[in-house]
């Protein structure tokens, strides 16, 4: 596909620009230039203070903003997004980065987006004829006023999931198989005990009310931190160093206690599903069922 000059926005402000190489099978980040360090994503800010490479930090941050390989309906979801018949494809677990990119790498849990710097055609047709679409990428100031990115393509969940949001409410609706109802019901009970979240159950469908996240504009996930952990001190102590404020540190301690309780009950929990939203001196839990 070649190099695409892109920009990372926080709200309506460019905080860094970088070169992005996109292919069907992955992406590379290089030539990153920081323009506003104070508004960078929390994990990137902390990583810079610890002397980590900015290109590595940005690549890792973007990788964490894609649907995980173990999403149960991944093949169907990606084929529908790219308008490719499923019978022509094998596993689609290498394509989530493209879906995230085409939707600005936007997440419902913060206010960041990735935009191209100038108008550009985007296609994989020469790399893989199955990906026959050609997209016109537009910089932020050339978007139509009604352009809205689909934020479902950065949800870190194994379950079939979708968002229902407006300016006041955020609902995450997740559906498990009939055989999983008991284990996810138990997981929901533990989650609500530790974080007092509002989760409604209807059959095999779980709806979590994340409307309180409208108060926050940044987020940090355990999956962004763990690769930088070493054996010098405890994992919790090292993770606490990445937290932006006192309230976030308190929530992190609860997250570790929640994860331990789930392990004791033989309930699987992924670090992709554990995060914290923050804004100035406030912090809020992001716990995905």
Summarize the structure.
This protein is an alpha+beta fold. The protein is built from 8 helices and 13 strands. The chain has helices at residues 42-49, 54-63, 74-82, 96-102, 181-195, 222-225, 235-240, 246-264; strands spanning 3-10, 13-23, 26-34, 112-116, 120-123, 134-137, 160-165, 170-175, 199-202, 205-209, 218-221, 274-279, 282-287.
Description:
The chain is an alpha+beta fold and 289 residues long. 27% of the residues lie in helices and 27% in strands. It is built from 8 helices and 13 strands. The strands form 4 sheets. The chain has a 4-stranded antiparallel sheet with strand order 3-2-1-4, with helices on one face. Strand 2 (13-23) and strand 3 (26-34) form a beta hairpin. It is globular.
**Globular, elongated, flat, extended or rod-shaped: what is the shape?**
globular
Query: Order of SSEs, N→C?
Result: EEEHHHHEEEEEHEEEHHHEE
Strand content: 25-35%
Number of helices: 8
CA distance, first residue to last residue:
36 Å
Number of strands: 13
Uncertain segments are none
Oligomerization status of the protein chains: single chain
Main-sheet strand order equals 3-2-1-4
Radius of gyration of CA atoms, rounded to a whole number: 19 Å
Q: What's the overall average pLDDT, rounded?
A: 93
Structural class: alpha+beta
- Share in helix: 25-40%
Specify the biggest β-sheet: 4 strands, antiparallel
């Amino acid at each position: 596909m070649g190099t695409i000059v892109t920009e990372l926005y926080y709200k309506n402000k460019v905080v860094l620009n970088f070169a992005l190489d996109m292919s069907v099978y992955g992406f590379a980040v290089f030539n990153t230039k920081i323009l506003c360090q104070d508004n960078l994503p929390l994990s990137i800010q902390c990583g810079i203070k610890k002397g980590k490479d900015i290109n590595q930090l940005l690549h890792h941050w973007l990788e964490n903003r894609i649907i995980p390989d173990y999403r149960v309906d991944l093949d169907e979801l990606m084929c529908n997004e790219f308008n490719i018949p499923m019978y022509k494809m094998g596993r689609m677990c290498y394509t989530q980065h493209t879906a995230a990119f085409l939707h600005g790498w936007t997440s419902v849990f913060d206010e960041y987006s990735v935009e191209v710097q100038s108008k550009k055609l985007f296609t994989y047709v020469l790399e893989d004829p199955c990906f026959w679409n050609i997209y016109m990428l537009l910089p932020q100031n050339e978007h139509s006023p009604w352009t809205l990115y689909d934020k479902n393509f950065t949800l870190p969940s194994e379950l079939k999931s979708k968002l229902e949001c407006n300016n006041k409410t955020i609902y995450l609706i997740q559906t498990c198989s009939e055989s999983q109802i008991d284990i996810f019901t138990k997981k929901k009970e533990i989650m609500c005990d530790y974080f007092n979240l509002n989760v409604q159950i209807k059959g095999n469908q779980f709806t979590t009310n994340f409307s309180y996240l409208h108060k926050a504009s940044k987020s940090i996930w355990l999956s962004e931190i763990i690769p930088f952990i070493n054996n010098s001190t405890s994992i919790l102590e090292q993770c606490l160093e990445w937290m932006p404020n006192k309230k976030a540190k308190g929530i992190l301690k609860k997250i570790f206690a929640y994860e331990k309780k789930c392990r004791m009950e033989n309930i699987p929990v992924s670090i992709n599903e554990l995060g914290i939203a923050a804004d100035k001196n406030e912090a809020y839990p992001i716990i995905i069922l």
